[in-house]
Specification:
216 residues, mainly alpha, 0% strand
């Protein structure tokens, strides 16, 4: 049994564990770190509980890798590069675990980067197109940059005028089974805009089998 861990505390953790709580939920209920629960569980040879939130399909190895990289101070994009995932995927995983962003507040873009984004925006490019042009940035990061400067999205002219490449990109994202809100986060749009695009193309909403409700 762990050092300074009372029998009562051990039994409490075991009872919560048997209620199908994952490591993060256990840590929050017991007022300890997720790593402490992880060590306690491994010490008693207890398998990892399936997490019902974002990233519930992850193996214990990848879950541990993401936590370790986040603890080391890496940004979402850097963690995504190491894990071969999209930065937005890591962002949603981090938020679901109540982990703060490692990005320092108040960081400003270089002047040449700011000018480049402004020029591309002035040419009418969408968030996703600007992201690709400035170095494979996510549409979400460009959307955040644009909103902080009070700039409206460049898709106001209507979905019919989207390029074939942009239409194909959105269709590929839709085919991943994401809901309107999650899809919007990936391509830098609101869930309402995604909803309108989907209705225009007669595409049904995706549903969660476990709840039978629509993902929004």
């Amino acid at each position: 049994m762990a050092l300074n861990l009372s029998k009562q505390e051990h039994e409490r953790r075991l009872q919560l564990y048997n209620q199908d709580n994952c490591d993060v939920s256990l840590a929050q209920m017991c007022g300890v770190t997720r790593q402490a629960i992880h060590r306690w569980r491994r010490r008693h040879k207890l398998p990892l509980r399936v997490d019902r939130r974002v990233g519930s399909h992850l193996s214990e190895k990848e879950e541990d890798l993401r936590y370790r990289l986040h603890t080391e101070g890496l940004l979402d994009a850097e963690i995504a590069s190491r894990c071969r995932r999209h930065a937005a995927t890591i962002g949603m995983w981090r938020v679901s675990r109540n982990l703060p962003s490692n990005r320092p507040r108040g960081v400003r873009l270089r002047k040449d980067e700011e000018r480049k984004r402004g020029k591309l925006y002035g040419q009418g490019l969408t968030d996703v197109q600007i992201g690709k042009a400035v170095g494979n940035k996510s549409g979400v990061s460009i959307c955040t940059w644009r909103k902080r400067r009070g700039l409206p999205a460049n898709h106001h002219a209507g979905w019919n005028k989207l390029s074939s490449a942009e239409e194909e990109h959105r269709l590929q994202v839709y085919k991943k089974g994401l809901g309107d809100h999650e899809m919007g986060e990936l391509i830098g749009l609101s869930s309402g805009s995604v909803y309108n695009w989907r209705r225009r193309h007669n595409l049904p909403a995706h549903y969660k089998p476990s709840r039978g409700g629509r993902i929004t």
